[in-house]
Structures are given as C-alpha cells and as structure tokens.
Design a protein that fits this description.
Structural class: mainly alpha
Shape: globular
CATH class of the largest domain: Mainly Alpha
Number of helices: 18
Largest sheet: none
Strand content: under 5%
CATH superfamily of the largest domain: MFS general substrate transporter like domains
Distance between the termini: 38 Å
CATH architecture of the largest domain: Up-down Bundle
Order of helices and strands: HHHHHHHHHHHHHHHHHH
Length: 394
C-alpha cells in the first residue's frame, strides 16, 4: 500500500480515532475527575490549554521533520505517545503529573492530527493532494459524533479510568499500525538538506501572502473558538430552550461534512482561493444572523448550518492554501509555522470572550467583536489570494 486511496482511507480512520480519543474526549472526563480527585475545573482545563499551546509550538519542528524525512516516523511516535500517555492518565493521582501528561499529549496531537497528515498527503501526491485532503477530513469530521457518545458510554459503564484505557487501546490497535506499518514515504523524493529547506521557509516569511494568511487565521480562529466555547451560555442568556440548543449545536457536525462533500463534488474547480473566499465570507454572515435575530429559531439553525459548513471548508483550505498560494517546498514547516498563531488564538479566545461579556454584561458585545474579526479574516484572506503565487501569475 504505497500512498494510494487505500492509504487515504487508512489515514482518515486514524484521524477519526486520534481526534476522538485525545481531543474531543477531554471534556467528558472533567466531571468524574472533579468528583473523585477534588481538582477544580479551572485546574483541569488548564492542563488542556497547556497541551494545546505546546502542540502549537511543536507544529513547526514536526512539519520540518516531515519535509526532510517523511511522516512515517513522526506520526508513529505521536500515536505511541498517545497510547502510553492515555494509559498513564488512567492512573493519575497528582495534579503535577496530570499537567506533565497533557504536555506530552500536546506533542502527540502535533504529530497525529490534521497538520502532519496534510503534509504527508501533499508530499506523496503533489498533483492530487486537494481531493485527498478533502476526503480525509470528510471522515475525520465524524470524530466527535462517534467518540463523544462512545466515550460517555464507556465512562458510565466502566468508570473514567478504564475508559481511558479503552481509548489507549484504540490508538494501539488502529492509529499506531496505520502510521507505523501502512504509511510509506516516497522513495523517489530526495530528502532535502537544511540549506534548501531554510531558503524556502525564509522566502515564505518574506512573502505578503504568508502574512495575509497569519492575520486571517488569527482573526478567524479567535472567533471560531469563542463561539465554540460560549455558544451554549450565549443561547441560555437568550432563554433558548435546552432541546433547541442541543439541536442547533448538533447541526454543526453534519454541516461541516456537507461543506466538505460540496468540495469533493466540485473537484478541481474548488481551488483554495475560491473555496476559501466563499467560506471566509460566509462566517461573518452567519455571525451577523445570530446577532440580528436573537429570538428567531429559524435564524439560529440557519446560523448553525452556515457556521458549520464554513468551518468544514476552512479546515480543508488550511491544508491546501500553502501549496496553492505559496509553494509545496517545505510545506510541513510553513504550515506548522501557521499553526502556532492558530493555536494561540484558540487558547486565548475563550478567556477574552469571557472578559468582554463580563465588562459589557451581554453576549451582543462578544458577537460584535467576533463579527469584526470575521470581516478582518475575509479581507486578509483576499489579500493573501491576490498576493499569492497563483494570483501574481494571473
């Protein structure tokens, strides 16, 4: 199996397990750990934030490693770390050890989630990476849908400690064999020396399209993270019924998948410039609907559909923008460098939104800031497309 569609399907399955078992499962363990260990929710969430921040800082060296030698070793080590650390988490009794475990899991995330997989597919399939990345994220988009109920069932049936052992087992049986045994690097691709690699990366740092992408990513992911972590209290503030809130939030996942299916259907016509331009423009429209129609259930579900579909497309665009707007050389390092501000924005936004809400006394002020950020993100992406290599060529 050398990098064909069978490998794309295998990588997609590994993404499903990695996202579901490490990232999405965390929130389900907070309450039982609070009850048994007596740790505060703030302390528990702090470990997650620390891990996510470290994963952002690790994204550049991980991407550079893939550029130089391929992704087999990187992703295998990441899966092995996940197995060991999830098992160790199941036996944790000390808060310091818990933070140390999550710093390690942050490294596992940086080596197993979308960014390294994007780099692998772009390296293996320089002519068809867009379709393969879209297909992979289509499957990965079901991670929360599959693993949240499965993990909740395991916690209820066996307790949170044994549930973590089952998640470690899932990584051992699925992710590690896929990355270690099935993933192969291109034998005909020369391994770049450090001088060539540095030239491509330094060139990106001087390119206006790169900095357009930085501004776009920071502005977008701050708004995305703020909505993700505050949508439920926002809707409760508006006295929306609990069943309606659950239904609206549950719409996000299918809408994400629908957006990615649309990309697959459009094929080569769905370039990063076109698809990203539409998606980044859709995000502030969705926020504006949520702001202008606070009591309308129809408007709430329209927001959910637009918000989910836009994010589904933007996830794919994150994987295709670098090779299309810049170049494929040193893709892993360049994309990894963009991941750092993305993760910093994700980490800072929930707290920043809480500060704005507390100061203003209403989520309307938060939505206005998110709307402004969405407009900035769309404008910055347009700037990146105009100054990208393809835009210059035209």
């Amino acid at each position: 199996m050398k990098g064909g569609w069978a490998l794309v399907i295998a990588l997609a399955a590994a993404q499903l397990v990695s996202w579901g078992s490490i990232y999405y499962s965390f929130s389900l363990f907070v309450v039982p750990m609070e009850a048994e260990l007596g740790w505060s929710r703030t302390a528990l969430d702090g470990a997650l934030s620390a891990g996510l921040l470290l994963s952002g800082f690790a994204a550049y060296p991980v991407g550079a490693w893939i550029d130089r030698g391929g992704g087999r070793a990187v992703m295998s080590i990441g899966s092995a770390l996940a197995v060991v650390l999830l098992a160790a988490w199941s036996r944790v009794h000390d808060i310091g050890a818990f933070y140390a475990l999550w710093l390690g899991l942050g490294l596992a995330l940086s080596a197993t989630l979308y960014e390294p997989a994007f780099a692998v597919l772009t390296r293996l399939h320089p002519q068809s990476y867009r379709t393969r990345i879209t297909a992979m994220t289509l499957v990965g988009g079901f991670a929360s849908t599959v693993f949240i109920p499965l993990t909740q069932f395991a916690i209820g049936a066996y307790g949170w400690r044994d549930a973590l052992l089952l998640l470690a087992l899932a990584n051992l049986l699925f992710c590690l064999p896929i990355h270690a045994l099935l993933l192969r690097d291109r034998a005909d691709a020369p391994r770049r020396g450090g001088v060539v690699f540095d030239q491509h990366f330094r060139r990106a740092l001087r390119h206006p399209a790169f900095w357009g992408l930085v501004v776009c990513i920071v502005a977008y992911y701050m708004g995305f993270a703020a909505i993700t972590f505050h949508i439920i209290p926002l809707l409760e503030e508006r006295h929306v019924a609990t069943a309606t809130i659950v239904g609206a939030v549950a719409t996000f996942g299918p809408a994400q998948v629908a957006g990615r299916i649309a990309l697959l259907a459009l094929g080569r016509r769905a370039t990063a410039a076109r698809a990203g331009g539409i998606a980044f423009a859709t995000f502030p429209v969705a926020v504006l609907i949520l702001l202008l129609f606070p009591t309308s259930i129809a408007a709430l579900f329209l927001f959910s559909v637009l918000y989910g579909a836009a994010n589904g497309v933007i996830t794919v665009v994150r994987g295709t923008a670098v090779p299309e707007l810049l170049w494929r050389e040193s893709y892993g390092a360049i994309n990894g460098a963009l991941t750092l501000p993305q993760n910093l924005a994700r980490a800072a936004a929930p707290y920043g939104a809480a500060v704005i809400w507390r100061a203003s006394g209403s989520y309307d002020a938060v939505l206005l800031v998110i709307l402004a950020g969405g407009i900035v993100a769309a404008a910055a992406y347009g700037f990146a497309c105009r100054h990208g290599e393809a835009g210059v060529a035209r």
